[in-house]
Amino acid sequence: MLFAFLLTGFYFTVATRFFQIRYFSLWIRQTLFSGSNPEGTDKEPENSMTRFQALCTSLAATIGTGNIAGVAAAIVAGGPGSLFWMWISAFFGMMTSYAEKLLGHCYRRRREDGSYCGGAMMTMEFGLGSRPMGMLYALLCLPVSFGMGNMVQVNAIAQSAEASLRISPLFTAAVLIPALIFCLKQNSTGIGRLNAVLVPVMSVVYMTGAFLILWIGRRQLPAALDLVRDDIFSWRAISVGVARGVFSNEAGLGTSVIAHAQSDVTEPAEQGMWGILEVFLDTIVMCTVTGLVLLVTGICGTSHDGAVLTMDAFASVFGPFGRHLISLSILLFAFSTLVGWSFFGMECVRYIDSPWLSRIYPVIYIAMILPGCFWPMQTVWRLSDLCNALLAIPNLLSLFLLRKQVIYLTNLYLDSKL
């Protein structure tokens, strides 16, 4: 399955003539420096997310605790060289994400209230003419939202709160349930506004601490990079690094297309560029910083628990405050994933168009907080990984079948801009 992820990204990288490198300045300019309402957005975006809100909503679901604990666990399991292979998988994943978002933009639809709806399931229905394929994808999204999107994240919050602040899991559940109920009552623009605040705040909190550690330990950075270089060609590093990179940014799963389809961007290729940025920020930036912090502090391998490793790394520089900082980061990262996946799940339910499911899904999603606080997560992770693989199959197939449209629209856009 990992080979299919890499092959898809490799194809779009070659077919677009290494778009993510050759046009680096273009996609950076059209994303980070595009402004609040640049040319290429709708004139009346009140009922849709802005491009930044769509990015934050997508990042809210993809960043999660994996960028803190998952990277540490990858280095323990795969060695320092796994970090290099995370970069490789992210490099190709950028173009998979680009293709997903471009197609999602092409086949999105407007609702009666003026808001957009879209996602990989709508690409399958309107791009391939297969509603059953879209229905299958939407149905598979639901168990993934309960597992990876909910229970795994809630468990991380409960464990970190108990370890750092001695807060009982039951109290954690009592706080999370009303907070999630509030978020579920928001429409897409409300969730977009919430994530536009939450994602930058949580990123700044965590990255500030991480960059301080790297600055303090800057003399150890060359040695840390040597560790990565010397371990590149071990099979363990390759397998673990590629797997961690693929599942870190979710490129190939198609789930984040749901958020990007809500954006006010009118040009499909430009929406695809936001997909490139998403993978870049999630893996090239966030995961790299976490990995270097672990290598610079020299504590990787002291524990098999990723969250504990990262806490130890921060505590080695900041003392007890470092543990509290990681606990706060896990809380923000995990809750943002909880909110992001609730939105993805509700959009899939709306696509399925079942009144009964529309009523029962929010209840089940909220109820999953309780077992998430108490149950061991190994089984949930295995089931989530299985659902992820099943989810990727129809999505990667649709990307392959619509590959010529991706290339055509990309070339058309470049001809008009260059």
Characteristics:
418 residues; mainly alpha; Amino acid/polyamine transporter I; Na/Ala_symport
Describe the protein:
With 418 residues, this protein is mostly helical. It has a single domain, classed as Amino acid/polyamine transporter I (Up-down Bundle), CATH 1.20.1740.10. Strands 1-2 form a two-stranded antiparallel sheet. A hairpin with a 5-residue loop joins strand 1 and strand 2. Helix 10 runs parallel beside helix 14 and helix 10 packs antiparallel against helix 16. The longest helix is centred in the middle third of the chain and has 35 residues. The protein is globular. The two termini are 37 Å apart. About 2% of the residues have low confidence. Pfam families: Na_Ala_symp. Keywords: Cell membrane, Membrane, Symport, Transmembrane, Transmembrane helix, Transport. It is found in: Cell membrane.
Secondary-structure topology with pairs:
Blueprint: H1 2-15, H2 19-22, H3 24-29, H4 51-62, H5 69-78, H6 82-106, E1 109-110, E2 116-117, H7 120-127, H8 131-165, H9 169-184, H10 188-216, H11 221-230, H12 235-249, H13 257-260, H14 268-297, H15 306-318, H16 320-352, H17 355-367, H18 369-374, H19 378-401, H20 403-417
Antiparallel strand pairs: 1-2
Helix pairs in contact: 1-6, 4-10, 4-14, 4-16, 5-12, 5-15, 6-7, 6-12, 6-14, 7-8, 8-9, 8-16, 8-19, 9-16, 10-14, 10-16, 14-15, 15-16, 16-17
Protein name: Amino acid carrier protein
Main location: membrane
Subcellular location: Cell membrane
